[in-house]
Amino acid sequence: MAKLIYTGLMSLDGYIADKNGNFDWAEPDEEVHSFVNELARDLGTYLYGRRMYEVMAVWQTLPTHDQPSFIADFANIWRAADKVVYSRTLKTASTPRTHIEQHFEAESVQRLKASAARDLAVGGPTLAAHAFKAGLVDVCHLFIAPIIVGGGNRAFPSDIRLELALQDERRFRNGMVYCTTDHQQAKPPNPGLPNSGAMKHSFRPSASSDIRIFEPDIPLHTISGRV
User: Where are the domains of the chain?
Assistant: First the structure.
């Protein structure tokens, strides 16, 4: 069965953007971006909310002839993957290989995982929160910047408890630290605490519940579910 993966670039206190919507403090340099490219290379499908999809769609039309090789590499990786967009307001996709669903249904995603030949990625913390609560997320790739921002847009939902198993870690020259966790190898959650065990979960997006994003200055900022 394919895995569902959540990737986040965040502050040390767990935010993907600060209270003002800024996240330039977590901008990936060439070393980090190239590492992310390798993680993304084996992905077959991205799951997005509408606004996250609209931000990421820049990779479809971005001219790559004058970009650094690691930027062009990610563009090619993203274009080759399938996309599923969950939105009640988006009627037509602007990119190839894209399917629109009105509702996020846990059972449907579970079937997709069972039938997929390659792993899937969920983009953005809002959609990922529903996947976490439905028990669908198998792996987290976390890139932690050496900064505390004190508040903002959280990388994880605040109302669940998960036991995680650390699988790998790496430190980059810019001070960022990567770690990956595997949920399938973690200890079972305490039955007396809130957890993600039930698969009966449905998310019905609306104009107000779609993912909140913060417009990046350059396409480099839009990788891997950061917004």
Answer: 4-222
| pLDDT of 199 over the 70 cut | no
**Looking at residues 46-63, what average pLDDT do you find?**
94
Bridge partners for 45 per DSSP? 82, 120
Beta bridge partners of 8: 142
pTM of the model: 0.81
Mean pLDDT of 130-151: 96
Tokens of 92: 């037509």
Is the pLDDT confidence value at 100 over 50? yes
Q: Please name the CATH architecture into which domain 4-222 falls.
A: 3-Layer(aba) Sandwich (3.40)
pLDDT of residue 192: 52
DSSP 74: H
Quick: pLDDT tens for 70-82: 999 999 999 999 9
Structure tokens at 197: 């065990």
- DSSP codes of every residue in the chain: -PPEEEEEEE-TTSEEE-TTS--GGG---HHHHHHHHHHHTTEEEEEEEHHHHHHHTHHHH---TTS-HHHHHHHHHHHHSEEEEE-SS--S-SSSSEEEESSEEHHHHHHHHHH-SSEEEE-SHHHHHHHHHTT---EEEEEE-S----SSEESS-SS-----EEEEEEE-TTS-EEEEEESTTSPPPPTTS--S-----EE---TTTSPP----SSGGGGSTT--
